[in-house]
Structures are given as structure tokens and as C-alpha cells.
Give the backbone structure.
Amino acid sequence: MSPILTDPAVFTSLCVALGLMVGSFLNVVIYRLPKMMEHQWRSEHAEMSGTEITPADRYNLVVPRSQCPACGHRISALENIPVLSYLIQGGKCTACRVKISPRYPVVEALTGALSGYVAWRFGYGAAAAGALLFTWAMIALAFIDLDTFFLPDDITLPLLWTGLLFNLGGVFTDLPSAVIGAVSGYLALWSVYWLFKLVTGKEGMGYGDFKLLAAIGAWLGWTMLPLVILLSSLVGAVVGISLIVFARHGRNVPIPFGPYLAVAGLVALLYGNALNKHYLGLF
């Protein structure tokens, strides 16, 4: 099997197919994980206050089976083929014909395309496996933050530890650089948070952003952090100004920073070394 997988065309094609399936699962994670955590918080709050709550039906990433939010129609296996089912059904539920959000196939297609590109760029091996895990986590975190302004510890913390484990063997950077990257990534945004709060009395970002940058540092090393911070800040500023000017987005309406960190992390994963060399070459 290994000689077949080492063929770039075969490996890339397989990773595209795998990415499409993972993208379908990521849609479940993006939708359900915040709800699962909200239920957990309510249960813990009720327990602390001594309030009795009605036992809820099992709800996790596996059960209940996916269904139409409008009519409750259970999605069959044939209706759950990534991207293809959406196109065949005309973007509508087969039971009630209510429109399905186009974001579902977008997430699937995006995950498939990025998975294929990662496979092509890194080739068969540990680097590709790690890069795929990193990419899938970035996609999930970006969309969850867009929906909820929250970056769940259930993803950011395992991502941080997994990055350190991969770099035990120096897959993306050496272990000292990964450890320093994790610490520096957290402290960098933590410092910005408190400086902004002391000056303005407001919170400029959440603790999830600290943990996400720490995870990126654990995967890519501390030398990538300036690039990630610069790119995320630049993209965030451009998008924020564009929303205010063209979409009349209120200046006081918060904008999640996690998606910009995720995009910058992916850029650093794929092109970080080349960009750092170019940047340093300017000086």
C-alpha cells in the first residue's frame, strides 16, 4: 500500500476524498460542539445553584442523526454525500423543500481542496498527517468563532498538545522552539488584552484567541509568531474597515479575531519559511 500512497497524484486524490468526508464531519462539529458546551455549562450552573433540570436526550457529535432543522427529516446516507448531495437536491431538503444553507457544501469543498493542497505540498509522511490535522482544526475553529465568538478549549488545547507531540520528532520545528512558541503565543495576546483593557476599560479579545495562538506556536515554532500576528492583524483590519465602510457594520459591534488567526496560521504552515526569508531579506 505504501508505494501506491507515495505517488503524488494518488496521495493527493485520496486526501481530497478524505477531506470532503472530514468536511462533512466538521459541519457537525461546527454546529453541535457549541450547543454541547452550552448544555454542559447550564448543567454545571444548575448543579451549583441546586436547581433541578430535566434530563435531556443524548446529544453529541454522533447522536442524534443529522436532520433538517425545518421539518426534522432524518438525513439519509445518500443525502449526506459531501457537496454532491447538495447539488443533486438543488440545495433543498428532500422532504419539505426548504433551502439548506450553502455553507455546508462550502465547508466540505474548502476542506477537500485544502486537504488536497496540503497533501501535494508535503507529500506522503508525518508532515502531511500533521498538516492535515492542523488544517482541519483551523477550519472548525474559524467557523465556530464566526458563529459564536467562541474558540472552544475542546479543540484549542488538544491542538496545542498535539503540536508539541509532533515536534518531539522535529516534524515542523524543534521542540524548544515549539515550547517557546506555545508560551510566547499565549503571552503575546494576553499582554495585548490586558494593555487594551487597562487603557480603554474594555475587553478587546477573548482567552480563546490566546490559546489558539499558543497552539499555532506549538505547531510552527516561535519564529512564525510575528508573521502570524502581522498577517492576522492586517487581514482583520482590512476586513473590519471594509465591513464598516461597505456593509455599515457598527464600530462597536465586535468582530471575531479567531478566523484571522486561523487563516494566518494556515498561511504560515504552507508558506511561512519563504515569507520569513523574504521579510528578513528586506533588512
Q: What stands out?
A: The chain has a mean pLDDT of 87. The longest helix spans residues 8-49. The CA atoms of residues 118 and 128 lie 7 Å apart. The radius of gyration is 21 Å.
